[in-house]
Amino acid sequence: MRFNQRLNMIMNLTETTNRVLAQQVSLDPSYISRLRRGERNPAKNENYIKMAAGYFAQRCQAPHQQAALADAMKLDVQEIPADSKQMAELIHQWLLETPPNRKKDVEEFMDGISQFHFKKNLSQPEPYFSQHLLSSIPEAAAFRGIDGKRRAVLSFLQLLQQSPQPQTMLLYSDEDLAWLIDCQVFRGQWTSMLAQAIRQGHKIKIIHSLSRNLEEMFSAIEEWLPLYMTGAIEPYYYPKTRDGIFRRTLFIAPQTAAVFSSSVCSNTDSTANFLVTGTEIIEALAQEFHDYLELCRPLMLILTREGLKQFSLNLNEFEQEEGRTILLTDTMSSFSMPAEVVQSVISRWPGAFKKELLAYQQQRAANFEQHLQRYEFIEIVKYPDMDEIDRDRLSVTIIKLLGAGESYYTRQEYCDHLENIIRLLQKYPHYQVYLADREEIPRALIYVKEDVGVIVAKTTSPAVTFAINESNMTAAIWDYMRIMTQKLSRSKRQKKDTINQLSKIIDGLRP
Q1: How confident is the model at residue 332 (pLDDT cuts 50, 70, 90)?
Q2: Is the model's pLDDT at 403 over the cut of 80?
Q3: C-beta of residue 208 within 8 angstroms of C-beta of residue 217
Q4: 73, 119, 235, 380: which could form a disulfide with 99 (CB 3.0–4.6 Å)?
Q5: Does residue 394 contact residue 406 with C-beta atoms inside 8 Å?
């Protein structure tokens, strides 16, 4: 649909007249009429479209209206947010272009994490430039346009690789990303040189721009995923809205060089990009970066295998927060384990701190049952692989995540665990378990608490855990998980069906 068709559709749906909408957005009714006839088209930065979207969000609350809106946007009705601000943003984007497919964004993000593995680079990527600037450059050099920005950035990375000591790079850019993503040859060389810098011991602090839409945010994280997996990156974000008019890029290696540029809106075709090596200029730019960093928040905590001991601390903090929760795991959750199974599993672990780990797990189980008295808790669990159970190779995921190595259920332990889940399902109305086929869900642990945050973990090698509390990403993943549970709910007797399924599994495992 064109803009005027979308506007007509939502005005008819909300029974809004030209005069009423004109009053809401401070325009003349005749101008609204021309918009509806297609005689005028608004610019994307016109504020009255955002005001109109806010008005429509307030007027579009009935189920039949939301169903019609979802159909027009080609979304599931469950993807229409209940929050009026989120609804207004969705309508705003839909009126001007097309709505973001949040489900697709999240699915691709999860797939990128769950399927990631390091690939040995057998050949060097084709160079974007056959020669870069050498280390003997003046204190400042200027480059113009997108091609100039690429040349400046690659020269910056070349100088960094020549540094005798590891540094922490300071990266920020909210400029248009065409310079980075539109040329595959440059993109390959940029990624290769960054990876080489990290192998040399360099680290990165990066401030992501959340003025971009959610799709761009997930795409940016996917783009950086191979580097995130190394544990060498600290990502941050600025939590407040910016107008996106005047934009900035800062790439700084504090002991070596810096690249900086500015642009207006998305116009980077002719802007100046500067590469500097003078100490005083680099220090001034680094101070500018740190001044901005003080206004920012961590985007997510990234824990690799070496940092998983910290995972228990972050997990404990996350679980102390109250709210509705959805958990997706390969196997049943450890806090639904009966105490004797926890003790039995931990007793086989050859490492130290068994008592501490046992006490920690017992405290988690107690917190879990207390949580169930007030808040909804949904588990999505893959059907057990009976062959893995027969071979005593069904993994206890949380033990692995806590840095305790591999641990596996015995057949008896697994049956005891399932029986305890049946007890919890019967005792607590807020508790629900869905058994899903392996093809239906992503291959990662996803633990999301509404309005609190998300833990996403890749449990296969290379293992990595992301702890996220940015509100838009949390809301997107929460919505994605809610839609998943609704699709898995095959009848109104879901809880009884789950208990029957678990009972049949137990009967099949008992001698």
Answers
A1: confident
A2: no
A3: yes
A4: 73
A5: no
Q: What is the dihedral of CA 104, 107, 109, 113, to 10 degrees?
A: -160
User: How many other CB atoms sit within 10 Å of the CB of residue 161?
Assistant: 14
Q: Which of 353, 461, 444 is nearest to 404 (CA)?
A: 353
* Residue ranges, CATH 3.30.870.10, the chain: 140-298, 302-509
Strands (E), 9-161: 140-144
Helix (H) or strand (E) holding 259: strand 257-264
Who contacts 240 (Cβ-Cβ below 8 Å, separation ≥6)? none
CATH 1.20.58.220 fits 302-509, yes or no: no
Query: Which residues, including other chains, have CB under 8 Å from residue 487's CB and lie 6 or more apart?
Result: 440
- H-type helices in 60-144, by residue range? 63-73, 84-96, 102-114
393 Cβ contact partners less than 8 Å away, ≥ 6 residues apart: 408
- Asked whether 200 and 264 are in contact (CB, 8 A), the reply is no
Nearest residue to 430 (alpha-carbon basis) of 473, 373, 387: 373
Coil, strand or helix: which one is 467?
strand
CA pair distance 144, 117, nearest whole angstrom: 37
Q: Which CATH class is domain 140-298?
A: alpha beta
What span, in angstroms and rounded, lies between the C-alpha atoms of 256 and 273?
17
Which CATH architecture is the domain 3-99 placed in?
Answer: Orthogonal Bundle (1.10)
Q: What is the mean pLDDT of residues 21-30?
A: 85
Q: How far apart are CA 271 and CA 266, in angstroms?
A: 11
Look at residue 223 in the predicted model and tell me its pLDDT.
Answer: 67
Q: In terms of residues, how long is the chain?
A: 511
DSSP state of 432: E
* CA distances to 6, 128, 194, 214 from 169, in Å: 46, 22, 10, 25
